[in-house]
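Components:
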Amino acid sequence: MTTITTTAAPGGMRRRAASFLHRHAGVRLSLLLSAPLAWLGLAYLGALAALFVTAFWSADVFTGDVVKVFTWANFTDLVTGEVYRTITLRSLGVAAAVTLIDLVVAFPMAFAMAKLASPRAQRWLVIAVLTPLWASYLVKAYAWRVMLSADGLLGWGYGLTATVVTLSYLWLPYMILPIYAGLERLPNSLLDAAADLGARPWRTFRTVVWPLTFPAVVAGSIFTFSLSLGDYITVKIVGGKTQLIGNVVYDNIGAANNLPFAAAVATVPVVIMLIYLAAVRRTGALENL
Amino acid sequence: MNLSRTSKILLRAALVAGLAVIYVPLAVVLLNSFNSDRTFAWPPAGFTLHWWSAAWDSSGLRDALWTSIRAGLGATAIALVLGTMAAFAVQRYRFFGREAVSLVIVLPIALPGIVTGIALSNTFHTVLGVPLGLLTVIVGHATFCVVTVYNNVLARLRRMGLNLEEASADLGADTFTTFRLVTFPMMRSALLAGGLLAFALSFDEIIVTTFTAGAGVRTLPIWIFENLFRPNQAPVVNVVAAALILVSVIPIYIAQRLSGGDPHTH
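Structure:
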């Protein structure tokens, strides 16, 4: 090593740098981490922290300027306001309903893909499920707006039901793929063993398939739940007058011009997601993402 | 397994029905782009190519498309650099806070978009005093795009192992030469896959964009959303939607080519 560093040929700088890096793993690591951590660790987390601090400030009623004085007012409004409680519960209900619908639709599909289709067909089925993920989110929500409109193909009209249906449609692939991966890892021999020991299909499902694929199901539910909880665009497109948490945040930034209150409302989905993640951490679902 | 014939048929039927539900709405959009009736009443009244040519001539649409492409390329470039650096650090080294690095990379996509959106716009606005524009959109998009490159490169590094790089060093190549001739060529398809995902993510994003774009910056999703509720523009919006569905086949094709026999690396 040292003999290389002493050769002062043309390009010696580069060589010296290379061998210096080769010998100092710590320097290499710091250089590699510098930019990503400055961006995401410092700037992004800093932005989140600043937003959280803003939630404890208030906005001037007339000018909309942020008044930098500590207050709990936003959070008391949030907790005591009947409207916000209703909207929070409604958003939770929508997220739960979407997750449940997606689970019920996705599980049989994933099972047929993983256990009934030939390997060749499996490959194509995965592509078929993945493909709509590449199509624009907005386009898919729009497609449902067209189908649900009064003289459209379905003609159900807009509202809460339309929102749940559209969100379920949008996030369905996010539920199918983890469950499919989980079922694929489940050895067929286990299913055969259960059958040989006399278990009927339902019992096999309940005692073998479900417990072993549960982490995958939870992994899928993290996507469907979180994506539904923060959504306000789909609600605007097919929800009619329905309001979810996201709409309250959006309206307080735009029309009401009350950033501190919007920041306080935005903490609600974050706290809910953190509780959800903490609750499912022990199932091992996070390794299935 | 001892599934009865009936349950097998039912499961297969569920799969077919599910796929039908996934594709029918997309098909409706495609069909409607040729529908001569501007309210899209079902069934279509007649065939026309008029909306396609109207969309082609719309300058607002063309500007929005160009803005989206620039934002996507900018965000992808940043995500490629940051994601690769972070993946190398996490995969090749053991250090305190390693788990935290992975978490902070996933966080922008795990949190609701609206939270990331207002956190960034608040920082640009009140903390930094930067005027909102295309640059702030790129910064916002890059923040949540890093994770796609990171995941792809991480998976590739895990599979690659260290043998070839060590062999290269033993044969006398220095750190940079090894990277250029050994490491980078082996990572190329992972970078392409990650970059493709990052671009697609950025191209489709609307929530973070809404909060980080200034008044003058209009990406394609923002243009679509603005025109969605204007009855006059509905047919043109529909053509854009149809075109986006058709164009989405390209990345799928590339992704499939890249992943070769393994459909799980996405």
